[in-house]
Amino acid sequence: MNHSRFVGAVVLAVALSACGGGSGGGDNTTSNQNVQTQSNTEPTSPQNGIYYNSDRFAVALVDKDAANNGLFVIDYPKESLFHGKTITVGSNTIETSGIYFNAGRLTIRSGGNPTKATFTAQGLEYDVGSLASFDASSYTGLKKAGASIAMNELVGTFTGGTSGGDQIQIDSAGNITLTLSNGCTFDNAVISRTKDYYYSATSVTGTGCPITSDNGNNFTLKLFTVKHQSADYIFAVAYNATLSGWTVIKK
Asked: If DSSP codes are grouped into helix, strand and coil, which group holds residue 213?
């Protein structure tokens, strides 16, 4: 099963139309080429990492050092992305405002509704606040997962999303192209391993997106993997100040 979405900044007065999503196995081909893995060894919070609820397949990527882009929560069954416009980082919390999210093929404007992630001894709890259309129980009990798979396992072409229309291509040098079924393409980017658990690239070029004023080379891309029911799933998010385009593809 694969899902893709394009999410607009809900703090804007203009809401994007949804770009569709879907399910179904995607064909993919992977190369066995070896790749030099790059690591970023800068200081990191022990709360950083990938979190995962195996019952509902909700996942979170946490990087408390990443300014306003330190928390991404993806609800896989409900095809939704939570990505705050701004965040406030505490010793055991991350609070967001101006949330971005997409649900059920609709782009939803949620105003400035706050959400809060709380770190516990067991993992991560994510409170969606007044966003009543979501089942908050989906975001309890997220346990810390392992790091993303090695770069050499990501070399190749992976397809999925709506009608098989999404694609991630990664070559042996880490060059990545993310193509979404909504028309967006994100490329001219090289991913490298970041803090030993996910991959990222900056100054990514976005073209073909529904709001043309948001095309350009001001996107950041983050990619990570989660093992679910013995299969690896690739999560990729490309975003700038107003837009988030994303996909989930079963490897």
From this structure: helix
Answer positive or negative: Cα dihedral of 173, 215, 27, 71: positive
Sheet bearing 58-62, strands edge to edge: 80-83, 71-75, 58-62, 49-53, 143-144
Rg (CA), the chain: 17
What average pLDDT does the segment 198-212 reach? 89
> Do residues 191 and 210 lie in contact, with contact meaning Cβ atoms separated by under 8 Å?
no
CB 90 within 8 A of CB 110: no
Report the amino acid identity of residue 76.
Answer: Y
Maximal C-alpha separation, the chain: 48
Residue with the two structure tokens 């994303």: 246
CA distance 98 to 248: 23
Each residue of 159-201: pLDDT tens digit? 986 557 899 999 999 999 999 988 889 999 999 999 999 999 9
